[in-house]
Design brief:
This is FIST C-terminal domain-containing protein. By secondary structure, the protein is α+β, with helices and mostly antiparallel strands. It has eight helices and 26 strands. Strands 14, 15, 16, 17, 18, 19, 20 and 21 form an eight-stranded antiparallel sheet that branches. It has a six-stranded mixed sheet with strand order 1-6-2-3-10-11, covered by helices on one side.
Length: about 375
């Protein structure tokens, strides 16, 4: 495997792309929604790399090496030498189709020598938890990682890229095939929970109506104090930790929207009735430590020197870390090593197992890392 990593701007890409020499078979594109020339860029890449697969999505920040950028494209060119791959896309007309879309996508990618699946999804019109459930129902023994597209924290419009297509309400997935591919993955947070467990007494998938029989939004606002007036954006700073059973590892759920009329909260993932939630808050040092721990576990899982690390971190982490955001990427770099190429984006949800022997889950507020190498 050979990898080249580039950061493109509207002003520079016309000069950079013609001079790329690597004969790439896979192009990963993480695109700022404010990047004006994305259609023209993709046409140019399709022309130059006519036999390559192009895959990507919109972001809430682009990761290129140890830099976190806005208004750019993080372009990763990969020459797979021993591994084959297949790209598929599924449209989603409504959020209720998320589970069935996961099933459809998994069946399209399914094959005897399938080693790994990477998925990027519309971040606003797809229920990420249902998507993951659909994928797992068909591919229970295949590792799956990826993330939900962002749009700079505006929660207005996100998109995915599948070859020459740029569209919303869609999911794109790529299957990697062959025994010589080595994949590592991990997802870690670093948030601190506080307060008491609250029972979810009324919900419908990712919409939470009641906690302990009380209106969810009213109760949530009572925790936030002055931050309540800035909802839903301030909700990124105070996610919920959720567990269904005592033996489960808690997952984090981030707020996407609020409804004053019915006093509900809409999350990036499902919150089933009967589950328990606790409020969480940020600890900057622990967030950076969480990114480092994720890198350690991902490298340990692959058991080989990493050639490419794909980082998908939640937009909520970026809002908390602010000017320190690059420190979590630098913490990853120190673990994966100077010879590893790093790409990625800030997302509206992360898809990965916690670690090597865990099932795939939808996460919020984590640093999720996928490492790819060929042996």
């Amino acid at each position: 495997m050979k990898v080249e990593q580039l950061s493109l701007t509207d002003a520079s890409w016309h000069d950079v792309v013609p001079n790329i020499e690597l004969e790439a078979s896979l192009l990963l594109l993480f695109i700022s929604p404010t990047f004006k020339g994305k259609e023209e860029l993709i046409k140019s890449l399709r022309k130059k790399f006519s036999n390559a697969t192009i895959m990507g999505c919109s972001t809430a920040g682009e990761i290129s090496d140890v830099k976190v950028n806005d208004n750019t494209v993080s372009l990763t060119l990969v020459q797979l030498e021993k591994t084959t791959h297949n790209l598929e896309m599924v449209k989603v007309n409504s959020m209720d189709e998320s589970f069935s879309a996961g099933i459809t996508l998994a069946k399209k990618l399914q094959a005897k020598d399938l080693q790994h699946v990477m998925v990027f999804s519309d971040g606003l019109n797809v229920n990420g938890a249902d998507l993951v459930s659909g994928l797992k129902s068909v591919l229970p023994n295949t590792s799956i990682t990826g993330g939900l597209a962002g749009d700079s924290g505006n929660f207005s419009e996100t998109f995915i890229v599948a070859n020459d297509i740029i569209t919303d309400k869609s999911i794109v997935g790529i299957g990697f095939y062959g025994s010589e591919l080595r994949v590592g993955f991990s997802s870690k947070g670093g948030w601190d929970s506080f307060g008491i467990d609250r029972l979810v007494t009324k919900s419908n998938k990712n919409v939470l109506y009641e906690l302990d029989g009380l209106p969810a939004l009213e109760l949530y606002k009572s925790f936030l104090g002055d931050n309540a007036k800035n909802l839903p954006s301030s909700g990124l700073l105070f996610p919920l930790s959720m567990r269904i059973n005592d033996c489960d590892t808690p997952v984090v759920r981030t707020i996407l929207g609020v409804n004053e009329k019915d006093q509900s909260l809409t999350f990036a993932g499902n919150i089933p009735e009967g589950s328990y939630v606790r409020l969480m808050k940020a600890n900057i040092d622990r967030l950076i430590d969480g990114a480092e721990d994720s890198a350690k576990d991902a490298c340990k899982a692959s058991n080989i020197d990493t050639q490419l690390a794909i980082l998908i971190s939640c937009v909520g982490r970026r809002f908390v870390l602010k000017q320190l955001v690059e420190e979590e990427v630098e913490a990853v770099k120190e673990i994966v090593g100077v010879n590893t190429k790093i790409t990625g984006f800030y997302s509206y949800g992360e898809i990965a197992p916690f670690g090597k022997y865990s099932p795939c889950e939808l996460h919020n507020q984590t640093m999720t890392i996928t490492t790819l190498s060929e042996c």
